[in-house]
Amino acid sequence: MPCRSYLDQTLSYFNDRPHVGVPAAPRGGAAAWRADDFDGPGAWSVELTAAQRDELAGAGRALVAGGTDLGGLSRGDVELPWLQPLIAATRAELADGRGFALWRGFPVDELSSAECEAAFWALGLHLGLPGAQNGEGDLLGHVTDHHDPPGTPRAREYRSTVDIDFHCDAADVVGLLCVATATEGGSSRLVSSVAVFDALLAETPDLAARLCETCELDTRSDGEGFAHVPVQPVCFDGEHLRTFMHQGYLRSAARHPDVTLDDRLLRALDGWSEIAARRGAALDMQLRSGDLQLCSNHTVAHARAGYVDDPAHPRHLLRLWLTLD
User: Fold this and answer.
1) What is the pLDDT of residue 150?
2) Cβ(190)–Cβ(44) under 8 Å?
3) Cβ pair 87, 288 in contact under 8 A
4) pLDDT mean across residues, the chain
5) Which residues are CB-contacts of 186 (< 8 A; sequence separation ≥ 6)?
6) Residue 2 predicted with pLDDT over 60
7) pLDDT digits (tens, 9 = 90+) for 55-99
8) How far apart are CA 120 and CA 318, in angstroms?
9) Core-most of 12, 35, 72, 228, by most CB within 10 Å?
10) 6-323: CATH topology
């Protein structure tokens, strides 16, 4: 089961979004949630059992001890029987349910850095097909402060401590495993892109329709030679609504002389952001060490608050992009 290159990963994500037109009415359903709908973290989180923790820890240790090339592994090379029911339930939740899940108790405190990475990779193989996250081909990302200069067109916000606006990644699912927390801040925020679009469609249908049309996305140097590429933020196949929202990259496309952001698009993006920011819409969670957050990039947009780091013990998350094969 080979991993996807960045180009194949991106094409797979965008091509698997058929579109027949603008929905005639809000879609609703399990994916159209608001934070107000949940009665505490117990509604969307699960604590791993001792057997499940031991299984992950054992897998990580065995892979490192054997000198295994993680990129050459297939799903069948690592058995995780105790986790299979939870994996199946989580895949269903991501594909057809609320679109996100939080696992607590991943055994990061019992493993070396290499063992933790191996255990996370092994789990990722059972959840989906890993894909490259950038033009450099990184398959297992490290979300930590690399001191990238903020505000520059090619800066990657996840490599700094700044606020990150709501966005989606070019993969069916993004998984973030918290290894170490920040001294202050850094909370994660999720919003249902289905619920946001439903509200926009009900309130300003013309602006909602604009998000179902093509616009340009700034690649910020990761575009395999393309400075910007056409994307359709919202796709509707007659049943499912799939959204790719990346406010920063959609807006920064205007830095290219051959791209103009029309007023209707700007108002549609503003309207989307205003609805996502309404009280009770977004779900805030402070990831703890050992927390694994999994989000659908079709029905959920994620954001992050800025944070203050301890240089001796920096905030550190491992990241996987997965296709639900």
Assistant:
1) 63
2) no
3) no
4) 93
5) 161, 286, 287, 304, 305, 306, 307, 315
6) yes
7) 999 999 999 999 999 999 999 999 999 999 999 999 999 999 999
8) 8
9) 228
10) Double-stranded beta-helix (3.60.130)
**Percentage of the residues of the chain whose pLDDT score is greater than 70:** 96
The model's pLDDT over 266-275, given as tens digits with 9 standing for 90+, comes to: 999 999 999 9
- Domain-wise residue ranges, the chain: 6-323
| DSSP helix/strand/coil, 303 | strand
Q: Output the six-digit token pair for 202.
A: 């009900």
Residue with tokens 């499912």: 240
Interhelix angle 113-127/84-96, rounded to 10 degrees, is: 60
290: phi then psi, degrees, rounded to nearest 5: 95, 0
- Maximum alpha-carbon separation in the chain: 58
Q: How many residues does the chain have?
A: 325
* C-alpha 299, offset from chain centre: 10
DSSP string, 88-116: HHHHHHHHHSSSEEEEE---GGGS-HHHH
Tokens standing for 166? Answer: 């709501």
**CB of 165 within 8 A of CB of 304?**
no
Residues 6+ apart with CB under 8 A from 82: 49, 51, 52, 54, 55
**pTM, entire model:** 0.94
Model confidence over 114-152: pLDDT tens digits? 999 999 999 999 999 999 998 888 899 999 987 776 666
- Two tokens, residue 214: 């093509």
